[in-house]
Amino acid sequence: MSHSRSTKRGFTLIELLVVIAIIAILAAILFPVFAQARGMARKASCLSNFKQSLTATLMYSQDYDEMYPLVQTTNTYNAVTAPQDNVWGTLVQPYVKNEQILACPGDPAGKTSREWPEGAAGGLPAPTTEAQRKFNYACTADFAINLQYFGPLTTSGGYGISQAQAAHPASSIYAVDSIWNRGSSGTPVGGGNYAMDPPCRYYTDGSNSFPSTGGLGIYWFGGWNPTNPLAWNVFGGAWPWHNETVNVAFADGHAKAMKINALTAGCDVKNAWGGRIFDKSAYLWGLDN
Description:
Layout: H1 13-63, H2 88-91, H3 93-96, H4 111-115, H5 130-139, E1 143-146, E2 173-177, E3 181-182, E4 188-189, E5 195-196, E6 202-203, E7 245-250, E8 255-259, E9 267-268, E10 276-277
Parallel strand pairs: 1-5, 6-10
Antiparallel strand pairs: 1-2, 2-7, 3-4, 7-8, 9-10
């Protein structure tokens, strides 16, 4: 009577190390791919939000004699006491009924941070009422309107410019991805910003390029600030949440992604107080370009 016995053999240490090394190599290859895929998904979602925000402003405009909404109506930041302040994001909410579209998924700021960025240091009142909470959230929208040309901050209410004033809407930037503030290390904080300054305030002859806004007054954040790379307004308030690219909305209703350095076409940005438009036909921010 014979008996057979099978001998089970385990992995050797070298074989285990080889397998571990292969897994580590595959992980090193695949993790960046997964991260890139997540980034592309956030970028696409942000662009979708951008298009919805842009559509909402155009719907608002159609209901108000083709006038774009103001960036801000009373400049008091008080959404409770009459006359209540509004920003474009609260003005257009009846057309979208979804404040989530104001946030870009590429911006890591959470809901609480947006409702009161940096606490009392954020410059906004504490959101002790629902109206103030909605107002604060709209102030930190990542969709920043081209403040100087389309819808100024005012103290008297009213509307922005008319659609007819934009001579070439398909090449005029209406809004762009934005940032609220940055910490001492340059890390973005607080969400986005509902308004931003275009690059280059002056024409080559030194005259002011910002248009008259019918006596409503013009507020300026200080322009682009490339000499201070850690400033919140190094790009005038725009911010490249998507690997050096920003989502850009144009006045005719289309939106696309662009490299952040492409936004200064036709002008020379030297510092916050300078900058000249040397090729008006290439400039992307004005009304008569």
